[in-house]
Structure to design on (128 residues):
């Protein structure tokens, strides 16, 4: 597993990448680090690149835990996020998370294409 992220000040966005299989605890720890840093505002928009993530352990319970962590974290709960997963199954799972999160389309969307997700996140495109 590997979760990494970096802040791009020119785009005022955080770029996160997940590779391999992750646990809920690993994601929770990463989100806490992102929230607590002083390098950028806690509500900074974020693009999650999930194209190299192993979704084998992501089930409905895992998705509900992810939704709950966002709801319990008011500093990031309404930050704009784009999620990029490029194959059919992973994209479908990502869409389930978007649906379950019950957030407006202006705040959270899933994409198959990195560039489209980035354009939407940066306000340069109207959607998927």
């Amino acid at each position: 597993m590997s979760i990494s992220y970096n802040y791009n000040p020119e785009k005022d966005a955080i770029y996160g990448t997940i590779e391999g299989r992750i646990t809920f605890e690993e994601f929770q720890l990463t989100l806490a680090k992102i929230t607590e840093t002083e390098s950028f505002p806690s509500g900074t928009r974020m693009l999650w690149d999930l194209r190299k993530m192993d979704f084998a352990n992501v089930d409905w319970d895992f998705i509900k835990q992810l939704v709950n962590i966002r709801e319990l974290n008011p500093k990031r709960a309404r930050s704009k996020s784009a999620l990029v997963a490029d194959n059919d199954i992973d994209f479908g799972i990502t869409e389930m998370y978007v649906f379950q999160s019950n957030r407006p389309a202006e705040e959270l969307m899933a994409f198959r294409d990195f560039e489209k997700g980035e354009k939407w996140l940066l306000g340069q495109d109207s959607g998927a």
About this structure: Helices lie at 24-36, 60-71, 88-101, 114-121. The beta strands are 2-8, 13-20, 45-53, 81-84, 108-111.
